[in-house]
């Protein structure tokens, strides 16, 4: 999710500079074919790596150091043809496929043990069409670079702020952030995709509306490998303003009271604004951002009513658009963490009974534990989008994320138990809907939690595009 503190050592909000190099990197080269079909053959389109190869560790690494999976092979793809060659190899050898673009999957669903990982990070070229005002990108494009690239044209796609997040994975799971209340989810701006399915066939959504529907919120790691995405873009605002309030040494009771105040105030939040309620142990930070030229009367009222009890109030700052969001770009180097969806909420009443107990557990945790609640609503709630996008949770106004960060692998068991206990309180308290981009490997009934009533429809697409379940991870759509 969004790390609201501009600290390069912490993961960020949702979501490396975009490489502008040629589409086929210099290290790709053909090698002589082998008769043994179980030994992969590299080409100018794809380079296969095995565990003994020098570059294997670099391409195996994902953002979460907690995940230690070891694929048998890594296919570093240079283009769509390379993706097809990699899928053909996996078919022949009956290897499960995991797909890595940005590598930010919380539970490491972009890798696997003993299978084939497709690394698409080298496929990262952006192209902006000044006439149509559309952006075409490859799946390896990362959010920070896309913001920079579009800024020269005064445009944006609505997304988060985490610079290292792959735009493909973000979009396929929904995608939200500072601009979602005004412009909708990232997936709502998606207009077209190209995909290589589990049989190696290429599909373009201009010929298959059902494919585009699925890729708008429910498409990551389920049916195929996305090789190209096309977005409509939006005018970038001239400025980006931010406000921050801190409240220290809270008790479970005072933290709950501040949550009630924040939930009530954000009911009137302008669509140009975003807010996050972030409890870290016993300290709370409330962030607000706004893209209006000047704060509205409604926003001024909210800001004034947040002041009572605050121990620190940041001087409001107004930056140029790009500089403003870059303050929240977060770290890009791998780190240890266990972050999961803490569920969707309609309002404070959904959390009221359980929040004091959650606060107690957070204060007693032996690792850095954060509960962040983010505002949704606005354009996300547009009922017209219910039929055009698979994203199933538009009716909710808020989304929670439970975050834990640590320094040593030896702390992993403690971290996982902390998350398990807090998630258990939420589940017992009736929180059932969860965000697909914040997976929890231990979540029961994840099919309904992530996909809602759309799951049978998604299963039909799975049978069409990947009938042998070649492309899979622990929580991918089942046949």
What's the average pLDDT? 92
End-to-end Cα distance: 30 Å
Question: Which class best fits the helix and strand makeup?
Answer: alpha+beta
Name the shape in a single word: globular
| Number of helices, where a helix is a run of at least 4 consecutive DSSP H or I residues | 13
State which percent range the strand residues make up.
15-25%
Low-confidence stretches: 1-11, 13-35
Question: Major sheet, described briefly?
Answer: 9 strands, antiparallel
Rg computed from alpha carbons, rounded to a whole number of angstroms: 22 Å
Helical content class = 10-25%
Number of strands: 20
Give a description of the structure.
This protein is of the alpha+beta class. It has 13 helices and 20 strands. The strands form four sheets. Strands 12, 13, 14, 15, 16, 17, 18, 19 and 20 form a nine-stranded antiparallel beta sheet that branches. A five-stranded antiparallel beta sheet has the order 5-6-10-8-9. Helix 10 packs antiparallel against helix 11. The longest helix is centred in the C-terminal third of the chain and has 17 residues.
Question: Could you write a compact summary of the structure shown?
Answer:
This protein is an alpha+beta fold and about 475 residues long. It is built from 13 helices and 20 strands.
Question: Which SSEs are present, and which pair or pack?
Answer:
Blueprint: E1 46-50, H1 56-60, E2 73-77, H2 80-93, E3 97-100, E4 116-119, E5 126-129, E6 134-137, H3 143-151, E7 155-156, H4 167-172, H5 180-183, E8 190-197, E9 202-204, H6 209-215, E10 224-232, E11 234-235, E12 239-247, H7 252-265, E13 273-280, E14 283-290, H8 297-306, E15 312-313, E16 317-320, H9 321-326, E17 336-337, E18 340-345, H10 355-364, E19 368-375, E20 398-406, H11 412-428, H12 446-451, H13 455-465
Parallel strand pairs: 2-4, 3-4
Antiparallel strand pairs: 1-2, 5-6, 6-10, 7-11, 8-9, 8-10, 12-14, 12-15, 12-16, 13-14, 13-19, 17-20, 18-20, 19-20
